[in-house]
Amino acid sequence: MAGEAVKNALVWVKAVFALVLSVTIVFTFLKVVQRARHKERAALLEYRARTGQLRAEVEAMSARLEDWSRESAALKAAAGEAYVTVTGESVDALKKAAAEADMKASRGKIPVPEGPEPKKQEPAPRDEVAGPPPGILSREELERLRAREQGQAKPDAESGTAGKAPEKAPAGPRPATQPDAGAKPGAEQEQVAEKAAAPETPPDPEAAFREQVLRIVSGAEEAEEYASRARVTRSKALALADEIMAAPRAVVAEKKVRQLAHMVSGLRAEETHVTAGIDSLREAGQAVEETRRQTVEQREQQRLAAEKRRQEAERRALQQKEMAAAREMAVELKPLVKEYRFNEAAQKARNLMAGFQTEPGRKAAAELLDRCERMEEVKKHVIGRLNAGPFAWGWGFGAQAVDVIGADEKSVKLKTGDVFWTGVSMPQMVKFLDYVLDDKNIRPRARGRLYLGAALICADAGAPENVDRYSRAAVDLAAEVQADVDRLLK
């Protein structure tokens, strides 16, 4: 009985141990599974967070590339307008010409034929290079000795010891003088000297301008190409990011994250390239805009200068025309002046001056008008004086003289009848002038003005011998008349 009880107890112990072991194994398995699940979930969260960062970076880089593409496109458009403004040609023509020039340059290159490979020199036998015979220096020792002697000869010459005998070199054959390995042949040295002496060609501003425009155009096209690729990359990256967010396992997510990181790396390289080029495009754009501005200013200055020259030429032509018309009018007024029709002559001069536009022309017409008005003033004064009282023996000379009893604008009234002013001779007019100007009741300044008018009548109507007499009398009576005498009787 006791043995059976022990056996039963052992069975129970084994059963309990097996149960405990099974529970422990199950619990450990569940714990491992739970830990793996936690690790899987943490890895997925990490990959998703990394994906979010990469997605944001892709969005930011794509936006910057789009901005730079738009900026470069604006620079390209501005450069095209500037090129049209400066040269009058389109950018397409410039690109075509540049492509043709590149093609011609590539065709002009002559390929250099490849010669046969130089033969490798086999090493000399050992007995040929063993060294010089006894008592004779080797080539290397001779060259070192010669260099040492030359280095000692220079300080001896500088210190004034050139007269001393140099040390004797050891006996043996002297090596032939070797040419300088760095020296160039004579023909090449002459070419180098000619290039150094030739004046530097100044840079061509037009070529530099075209080069800058081409650089902007090519840079803008390249930026657009990068932006287009960035759009495709962005679309793929966003789709891949969505797949990562929906990935059920970390292994799948990890693989896709690596793919996404590779895309972002390529996008970074493209952004770095565009970033380095956009600053260059901006500088070129500023230079092109400055050239355009200077060209526009220069053309505007040229246009204004041409317009000024045209206006000046028109003004000179009009001035010459008006001066010629004034001279013609002076000739045309001569018959009226000789008939003492000063009022009509003044009206013609007044009409002429109203149509003139230049200052010299108006000045010449005003001078004609001034002369006619002064002569008309003298005539009116003569008529007034003749109407004031009879001029005894005023008409004619000698025994033929008769009294003048009055006058008006049309005629002179004599005791024997009327005579039109057109029938008054110049000597008779001088007699009337002397009669009127001899009136002491007239103020000196007014008499001086009348004397000047009388001198003008004599000058224009045909009595030049009286001009000097009347003009001197005018200045004697009124010194301020001198300026008018110099101007009208020059």
Any overview of this molecule?
This protein has 490 residues and is mainly alpha-helical. 73% of the residues lie in helices and 4% in strands. It has helices at residues 2-87, 91-108, 139-158, 186-197, 205-245, 250-338, 342-354, 359-388, 426-437, 444-461, 467-477, 482-488, and strands at 391-395, 402-407, 411-414, 417-420. A hairpin with a 6-residue loop joins β1 (391-395) and β2 (402-407). α8 packs across α10 (444-461). The longest helix has 89 residues, at 250-338.
Structural topology:
Blueprint: H1 2-87, H2 91-108, H3 139-158, H4 186-197, H5 205-245, H6 250-338, H7 342-354, H8 359-388, E1 391-395, E2 402-407, E3 411-414, E4 417-420, H9 426-437, H10 444-461, H11 467-477, H12 482-488
Antiparallel strand pairs: 1-2, 2-3, 3-4
* CATH class wording of the domain at 14-98 and 206-304: Mainly Alpha
Q: Which percent bin holds the helix content?
A: over 70%
At CATH's second level, what is the architecture of the domain at 14-98 and 206-304?
A: Up-down Bundle
Sheet of most strands: 4 strands, antiparallel
The number of strands is 4
Strand order of the largest sheet: 1-2-3-4
Distance between the termini: 177 Å
SSE order, as H and E?
HHHHHHHHEEEEHHHH
